[in-house]
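Hi support team,

I've been running sequence recovery on a batch of backbones for a student project. Most finish fine, but this one hangs at about 90% for roughly twenty minutes before it completes. I'm not sure whether the input is malformed or the queue is just slow. I've pasted the structure tokens below so you can try to reproduce it. Let me know if you need the job ID as well.

Thanks,
M.K.
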């Protein structure tokens, strides 16, 4: 059988539980405060942007590395047999765009 508790023990339990309840309610109040909700949303959005930007950087870096590997040899010398045709195609595209722009005027 459990011993009977004294009124002082019961009162101490009530005080302790009230304090615990007050702490819990304060935590809930902070979590549900609009500023806290907005700050959490901003943090999640910022993390999503950082992840997306990081992925974009990796993809762009890989693309640049692939192109560089095609246009530059392992020792760093330019591969003219690949650069010249790419440059000529680029010049042809710029020339066609220039002609098109002049015809529209």
């Amino acid at each position: 059988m459990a011993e009977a508790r004294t009124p002082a023990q019961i009162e101490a339990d009530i005080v302790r539980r009230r304090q615990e309840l007050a702490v819990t309610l304060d935590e809930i109040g902070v979590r549900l405060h609009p500023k806290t909700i907005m700050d959490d949303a901003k943090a999640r959005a910022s993390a999503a942007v950082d992840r997306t930007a990081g992925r974009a950087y990796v993809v762009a870096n890989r693309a640049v590395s692939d192109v560089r590997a095609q246009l530059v040899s392992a020792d760093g010398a330019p591969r003219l047999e690949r650069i010249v045709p790419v440059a000529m195609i680029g010049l042809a595209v710029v020339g066609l765009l220039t002609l098109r722009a002049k015809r529209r005027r």
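--
Follow-up from support: It reproduced on our side and the slowdown came from queue contention, not your input. The chain has two domains: 7-71, 79-105. No action needed from you.
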